[in-house]
Design brief:
Layout (H helix, E strand, L loop, with lengths): L3 H6 L12 H12 L3 H13 L4 H6 L6 H15 L1 H47 L14
Length: 142
């Protein structure tokens, strides 16, 4: 007959989820899950640049992990309205791009006008340097 010890010695004991110090784990987890206003602002700014790029976002938040960023996103996405932020940001970027294109066009037009003035001035100088019969003036006047 198999005794109690023999029966339980062959049993596998899973220790994967065992916490050595659950109090310190809880304290650390609580500190990591509290987000300051500055961290929230950094998260929003980075999210607009890297939508759902939580690895990149976590790099700019030294006390937060990728997991913390993902949790924060899903817990706050209804109140923060990230899609609206993205639309607003993309409108702002498009507007800035349009302004840059307009400035570049104005600069090109200005350069073109300056070049035309320069060519006109050179033409006037050539015309003034020739005599009425089309011969260029000599150094001694004739």
């Amino acid at each position: 007959m198999v005794g109690f010890q023999d029966k339980h010695m062959n049993r596998f004991v899973n220790r994967n989820s065992v916490m050595r110090d659950p109090a310190s784990f809880a304290k650390e987890w609580q500190q990591r899950t509290i987000w300051t206003e500055e961290e929230k602002k950094i998260f929003r700014d980075q999210y607009v640049l890297f939508p759902k790029g939580f690895e990149k976002i976590a790099v700019s938040l030294p006390k937060k992990s990728v997991k913390d960023c993902v949790l924060f996103y899903y817990r706050s996405k209804k109140t923060e309205k990230y899609k609206r932020l993205l639309r607003k940001y993309s409108r702002r970027v498009k507007q800035q791009q349009r302004l840059q294109l307009q400035q570049q066009e104005q600069e090109k037009q200005f350069q073109l006008i300056e070049r035309q003035r320069q060519l006109q001035q050179e033409e006037r100088q050539r015309q003034e340097s020739t005599t009425s019969n089309g011969q260029p003036l000599t150094a001694n006047g004739g």
